[in-house]
Each structure stands twice: as C-alpha cells, then as structure tokens.
Amino acid sequence: MSTDASRRRDVTVADVAKAAQVSKAQAARALGNYGAVSDDVRERVLAAAEELNYRPNELARSMNTGKSNTIGVVVGDIENPHFGLATRGITDTAKKSGFNVILVNTDEDTAAEVDAVKVLLDKRVDGLIIAPASSVDTQHLASVHTSGRPLVLLDRKAQGVEVDTVAVEMEGISYESTTYLIGEGHRRIAFISTIRTDEPYFAGLPLDSSQISDRRDGMKRAFDEAGLPQPEDLVRLNAGGPESIRKITRELLQQPDPATAIIASDGLIGLSVVEAIQDLGLSIPDDVSFLMYDDFAWTRLTTPPLTVIAQPVYEMGVAAAEALIRQIQGRKAPAAKPEFSATLVKRGSVGVPGSRANG
Amino acid sequence: MSTDASRRRDVTVADVAKAAQVSKAQAARALGNYGAVSDDVRERVLAAAEELNYRPNELARSMNTGKSNTIGVVVGDIENPHFGLATRGITDTAKKSGFNVILVNTDEDTAAEVDAVKVLLDKRVDGLIIAPASSVDTQHLASVHTSGRPLVLLDRKAQGVEVDTVAVEMEGISYESTTYLIGEGHRRIAFISTIRTDEPYFAGLPLDSSQISDRRDGMKRAFDEAGLPQPEDLVRLNAGGPESIRKITRELLQQPDPATAIIASDGLIGLSVVEAIQDLGLSIPDDVSFLMYDDFAWTRLTTPPLTVIAQPVYEMGVAAAEALIRQIQGRKAPAAKPEFSATLVKRGSVGVPGSRANG
DNA sequence: AATCGGTGTGAGTCCGGTCTCAATCGTAGA
DNA sequence: TCTACGATTGAGACCGGACTCACACCGATT
User: Fold this and answer.
1) Domain identity same for B216 and B297
2) B93 with B235, same domain?
3) Three-state secondary structure along A221-264?
4) C-beta of residue A158 within 8 angstroms of C-beta of residue A117
5) pTM of the full predicted structure?
6) Chain D nucleotides covered by protein, CB below 7 Å
7) Is residue A222 domain-resident?
8) Do the beta carbons of residue B170 and residue B117 sit within 8 Å?
9) Which residue is nearest to the C1' sugar atom of C9, using CA?
10) Same structural domain, A37 and A103
C-alpha cells in the first residue's frame, strides 16, 4: 500500500497533514523548516511525509517565493566544444549554489535568441547568461536588463547594455598574434569567421560581433604599427558549414597573391581549414601558416601541432555563473571583476612564408 | 508610461482584464485562446495585453495544467563532444515541439544522478532523458518509470528498467572491429575505458555499464571464434583523467609482451592515448595500432588519420527526444523503433603488428 | 490572581493562471 | 409573440505550497 501511494496525483502537504493529523499549516511548517513547530508534530509530519513518499512541488513553491532556482543559458551552439566547456563551467558552478540550468541553443540566430529570452523569462528563470549572437541587435538584452532581471553576457559585449560581461580581451591578443605572424615575415594574412553579414567584407564594414571586430581591430593595429598595407581582401566572413569553409580556403590559397597565413576564428572553422589545406596537398607550415582561436586538446595531435590562441573557457563559464548568482542573491559586485586574457600558444603551425620555395 | 509598465510586479491577467474592462475569466480566455469570446472582447483584451506588455507566467500555467513543457536531460559530461552532439540533437528536437531542456551534468557519478533525477522530478519536468552512469544501480530509474513519468535512456541500458532505450548495438560492432584487428594479425589487443569499478579488471568481472560490457562481449566472441586466447590482462578500467590514461598507455606498451593495438572507449580517452604514444616516440600504425569509439572531425586531421567506430550521435539524440515526446503526448510507439548501428571507419591508424621491426 | 511574553496551532489568503458552472443575452423556430 | 438553445460572460473554485493573523496555552511576573 505505502509503496505505490504515488498512484495518480502526487502527494501534497495537505495529504501529509491529514496523515499526520495536523493542520496543513503545521505540516507545511514542519516540512519547510520554518515557524514554530512542536517536536511531537514535527516527528509525526516527517514520518507521514516519509511514509507517503512526499516530494514538494517546486513549481508551486517557485510560484509564491518568486524564485525558481533556475538560470537560463543561451548559447549559439553547444555542439561547439567552446560552448560545451563554458556550459560545463556554468552548470558546475550553478549546481554548487543550488541552481539548475535551462539550456537553449540559438544556432547564432538573433531571432531564435529573442525568442529564447522570451521563453526563459516566461518561465521565470532567476537570471540569464547569454552569449549574444549579435553585439548590435540588442534590444531584447536591454529589455531584460531594464526589467531588472539579472543578466550576464558571455564572450561578446552588447552595445548599450551595461551588464557584467565575461569576455576575453580580444584586441590585445589579436594584435599580439598578428604581430607575431608579421614578425615571421607574413604580409598576406587571411582571417575567416562564421559571423553573418549582409554584405561581403570591406574595410570599415561595421561588424555585428564585438569579439570579431575587436580581433579585426587588433590585426589592423598590428599592420599599421608595422607600416604595412592592410590585407583587407583576405578577410572572409559568412563562412557557413564545412563545405563553404573549404571553398573559401581554396580561394584564399589559389588566388593570385595568395594568403601565406590563415587565422581561423574558432575551432570548428579551423578544422575545415586544415582539412582543405591537406586536400590541396599543401603543407603546414611550409606552404601556409595556420593559427586558430580556441585551444582544443586535439590541436596537439596534428602534424604539426597547431599554434593557437587559448582562452580560459571553463573559467569564464564559472565566472559568468558566479557573477550571475551574485546578482540574483543581491550581493554587490566583488572588488575587482576578473579580466580574462587569452594566450598565444606557439606550437608548430606557423613558419616563415615561402620557406618551401626558398629552402 | 506604457513602456515601463513592468515596474515592480509583473502584469497579470487580472491587470489586463481591468484595463480591458472585462472579467478575469474573459481576459484569460482571450489570451489563452480557448472558450468562447466575442470579437469585441478579444480585441480589447489583446490590445490591453499589448499595451501593458503582458507575458503569461509559465509557472502558474504549468501548475494547473500539470505540464511544464520542459524535459530533463541528465548526462555524464557535456564537455565530452559525444554528449555535446547528442544534446544538440535533443534540444533541436525538443524546441521543434515546444519543449525546453533542463540540463544536468553528473560527472558519471551515480549519487549525483540520483539527486539530479530527484530535483528534476520536483521541478515537474514532463519527462527525462538519461544517459545512466550505471546499468546496474538503477532503482532511481525504475522508480521514475513506475511513477509513470516518461523516461528514455540514452547510450546505455539499465537492468530491470523496461523503457525506450536509444543505444547503438555495441556487441556487433565490437566483434566486427576486433575481428578486423585480429585479421590484421593482432593478438595483443588492449581496451581502455573510464568506467569506474571497485576492483581492477579480471575475466568475468561484472561491468556496471551495458555499453562497456557489450563491447567486451564482442571482443571475447571475436577471440573465441578465432580460437585465440583472450588478452584479458590488457583490459584497463578506471582510466580517470588525461594523466592516468597516459600512464596506463605507457604500461600497456612497455610491459613484456606489450599490446600491439589499443582500443579507446571514447574520444577523450583516445586523445590521451595518442598523445602518450607520440610521447613515447612510437609511431601509429607501425609500432602500435589504434582504434577508438566516436568519430570526431579532428580524427581526420591527425597523421595518420584515425580509424574509428562512428556512432550516429546526433541522430540518437533526436531519436531519444522524439521517443520521449511521443510518450509525453501519450501517443503509441511507432511501428518499429529504430535500431542504431555504428560503423567501422577504416582510416590509417590500424596496421600489421611488427611491421616496423619486420619491414 | 491578573498580566505578560513567547510558543503552538489552525483557518484562510495569496501567487497567477485554468477551468467549471450558472446566469444572461440574442435571436431563430413554433 | 413566446420559448428554446447556443453564444457570452463573470464569479469563484482550484493547483500546491508559503505565509499572515488571530487565538489558545503555559509558565513567569508583580
């Protein structure tokens, strides 16, 4: 009898109260561990709860506490290990503070993101962590913020939305990396990103993603300081799937005055670029140098191992969750918000251009 | 005025009703699109809702519909691209049917899994997709099932829990792969898995994971049919982090009568194994052959590209979500439940043992 | 013995929706 | 012109907890 008590409807406080022969209020107090309850009542209620296999309905609880102990996480693509790792950092941290995570994937589509935000807000999440698809199209983010709901941005800033943003300082590392390539003798440096734009790249095109425009800024500064002409013609955006990326790579390498080095904006792109280079029968770094953002474990296994820009992704996930939870709990920001920085990890995929022909 | 209507408390149906000068019931009907509502009332209500920027409270809604339009997903490690991809399949499919996903990471720890199930049930998710940490320790899964809550298992079966299980038929592909290795001349085939056991492996040790024991069964059958002795001494479980895996790899390759081929139970293990092999200055496949489960994109980039057992991970995620949603919506199972099978993708990491010494 | 402060306790309200039920309205059929 | 039936409509119950409020009770003051 007692084992299958949860037949149809779930057990409620009222059921427990009846079984324990006390009022609903007293049962609720004993179970919720608040207010004054005599030992006798507490024992009877707890015993009855155990017996009936009572489990509180968190929905009901959330409804009148106003807290759901849930945070919403909106990312572009969990399939991308970058976000997988960040998500891990977020969930680990959230769990520690008793929060659950509702995960929404947007496919880097702003419309989907707007919708995701709406849905999560309707579900009354206690706060949101968003890796915005666009740094420009940000009304929905702004409205989250002004409505007073805690919000933390990950990876990218959002124009006009003054909230905690956990991101790597990109301009600097991009400058450093580009300078390194220039130092090795490269002048024709290509940059490939999946960021979507309405028109192909041209100098001065405003970019939708702070992350990408910061990287471009760093590259430009490096060329400027070196007194070299900007290879703007080698910037390729809108790189979609693997096939598109391979095509772009072929074009960059087979055109007159080809690229001698390629920077891939993330690991997924890098994968296809390296594949395309191998397919062309070219060798890294003798024929073309390669550099990519994100330091995945497999980059050590290729021949040669890849030179990458490593970002503390897991730690950033942790920091984002911590910042959000701090906001939710109404505590003030810590003395100094941690600034994350990326590091250039030199392995073997960058060499001197033309070394094959010259050597 | 109208823009910052959402000052303190959110707007409720009652507010909308008042603004539209109708009863709460009528406003609810107009908003919820049910019951009979005159055009006049509908228009006024909708206009008022728009004006006040009304958004329904999904918690309240869930509370008396009993449906939360949320499913719980419990995996061992989202950081692992295997689960990342499966999760992508799940979320894509869930979104299509209007479901959200609460993601919980268990670190392959059964206690954490038990807890996760409890929390998700308390949150009244409409159903659960679980990749169980253990195929043996399954009371919590059984209780989910008997309580009538929809449940679908992913990747691994659970003893005594008769629910839809989306998993690859492992024994067969393991047999096929092992037979392939034996055919190439291998006799000393090692198998490394992260599965946790209380004691080191010995022949006949019951394994906690159906996935792993099925793989072992396939290997055994291959050796039996070939009339060869089982290399049980080369089975290594409890392979924890990267360091531990590298150590195990070194042992397997440097002991007297070493392994000539290594099978890695998943991509994360494979990564460390290949690293260790490279560190030892050994070459694949001349000195040692390598085979791993999971076909990640990077396996094509190594030198040589890796021979792998590819699993339709994304599709399995989709299938799991579809099966769960079908259960939630009370529809009957489809004619035939899809059986997923893995494929052996022969690339370059398996060769003839001793080819270096002999050649 | 009357009063005071604190503990226990139960009735009942509230959160924000959904949904039942009975009352009202309009008009088509007799 | 009167009745009947479907379309509208509003009051209020209800989901399952959290929490307010009024009241009973009890030993300690004075």
Assistant:
1) yes
2) no
3) HHHHHCCCCCCHHHEECCCCCHHHHHHHHHHHHHCCCCCCEEEE
4) no
5) 0.92
6) 7-12, 14-20
7) yes
8) no
9) A26
10) no
What contacts B301, CB < 8 A, 6 or more positions away? A271, A274, A275, A278, A298, A301, A302
Residue A17 sits in the same domain as residue A76: no
Is the Cβ atom of A35 within 7 Å of strand C at any atom? yes
Amino acid letter, A251: E
A284 inside domain: yes
Q: What CATH number is attached to the domain comprising B320? A: 3.40.50.2300
**Beta carbons of A59 and B63 less than 8 Å apart:** yes
Cβ–Cβ of B84/A95 closer than 8 Å?
A: no
CA–CA dist B353, A205 (Å, integer): 57
For residue A38, the enclosing domain spans 13-56
**Domain annotation covers residue A333:** no
Q: Is residue B270 part of a domain?
A: yes
Q: In chain C, which nucleotides are within 7 Å of a protein Cβ?
A: 7-12, 14-20
For B68-109, what is each residue's pLDDT tens digit?
A: 999 999 999 999 999 999 999 999 999 999 999 999 999 989
Residue numbers in B 10-29, CB below 7 Å of strand C: 10-14, 24-25, 28-29
Looking at the fold, whether B175 and B298 belong to one and the same domain comes out as yes
Each of the 359 residues of chain A gets a pLDDT tens digit; together they read: 333 333 357 899 999 999 999 999 999 999 988 888 899 999 999 999 999 999 999 999 999 899 999 999 999 999 999 999 999 999 999 999 999 999 999 998 999 999 999 999 999 999 999 999 999 999 999 999 988 899 999 999 999 999 999 999 999 999 999 999 999 999 999 999 988 888 888 888 888 899 999 999 999 999 999 999 999 999 999 888 899 999 999 999 999 999 999 999 999 999 999 999 999 999 999 999 999 999 999 999 998 999 999 999 999 999 999 999 999 998 776 656 778 999 999 999 999 997 655 43
Our count of domains for chain B comes to 3
pLDDT digits (tens, 9 = 90+) for A229-274: 999 999 999 888 899 999 999 999 999 999 999 999 999 999 999 9
- The region that residue B158 occupies, defined by phi over 0 for left and psi between -120 and 50 for alpha, beta otherwise, is beta
A295 plus A317 within the same structural domain: no
